[in-house]
Amino acid sequence: MTADDQKRAAGAAAAELVQAGMIVGLGTGSTAVRFVQALAARDVAIQGVATSEATAALARSLGIPLLELDEAGDIDLTVDGADEIGPGLALIKGGGAALLREKLVWEASARRVVIADAAKTPGRFGRFPLPIEVVAFGHASTAKRVDAALADLGFDARAILRRRDDGHPLKTDNGNVIYDAACGAIDDPTALAGALKALTGVVEHGLFLGLAERAILGTADGVITLLP
Ligand code: 5RP
After folding, report:
1. Of the residues 35, 83, 115, which should be mutated to test ligand 1's pocket, given the most ligand atoms within 8 Å of the CB?
2. What residues does 223 pair with on adjacent strands?
3. What backbone phi and psi angles, to 5 degrees, belong to 99?
4. N or C, which end of the chain is more exposed by having fewer CB within 10 Å?
5. H-helix or E-strand spanning residue 216
6. Catalytic: which of 16, 84, 102, 133?
């Protein structure tokens, strides 16, 4: 079973959680694509709230009606992928640069489900470089303070500006830039999350803590569910 088979199986299982009439948060990334495709194939009457322009375009192409977050108000269920799933379903997200809109949609949702292939649950939390969304104005200055905060917490890591293939800084859907910090093992994600949020210029980070109610994983042995 390939990783994509696992993503497809997880996405299809999550689509079964959706009932007619729901407002559904639609995640971003290759696993979320599988969910959105499975949801469209089920043909239940729902309205979606997209977590990125890419997902909005996909949903529209599949005939899923969309609401803006502020139109939707309370979202019934959000299903989204993750770059890493750790203890207690702590997540690292933002590999697709959509972490800010993703977190806004997750936090507006009554239920939040993460879907992934089996490789997203490594032994030690922190393998995936942590995405940090930073205001474009003065971003290198902000990055220095991110580095200092990481050092204060004992991490031997520097924030690296994410670039597009053409070398230009990648801009998010919100016009911000992304830094990635290869922290290594993150034993106290709450402390790291707090330190990053306290920095002027940091808009959001990719630590999603205490948000996922369950993880639906595609594995070589079939789909399994993890609870916090
Ligand atoms: C985007 C995300 C994605 O959910 C994360 O990058 C996982 O993507 P994929 O399903 O392609 O592995 O956080 O910002």
Report:
1. 83
2. 218
3. -60, -35
4. C
5. strand 214-219
6. 102
Q: Helices 3-15 and 30-42 sit at what angle, rounded to 10 degrees?
A: 40
Sorted by where each starts, the structural domains of the chain and their CATH numbers stand as 3-120+209-226 (3.40.50.1360), 130-199 (3.30.70.260)
For 111, the token pair is 């239920």
Q: Give residue-wise pLDDT tens across range 9-29.
A: 999 999 999 999 999 999 999
178-201 pLDDT, tens digit per residue, is 999 999 999 999 999 999 999 999
CA 102 to ligand 1 centroid distance, Å: 10
Cα–Cα distance measured from residue 105 to residue 95, given in angstroms and rounded to the nearest whole number: 17
Ligand 1: centre distance to CA 20 (Å): 26
Interval 45-80: pLDDT, tens: 999 999 999 999 999 999 999 999 999 989 999 999
pTM: 0.96
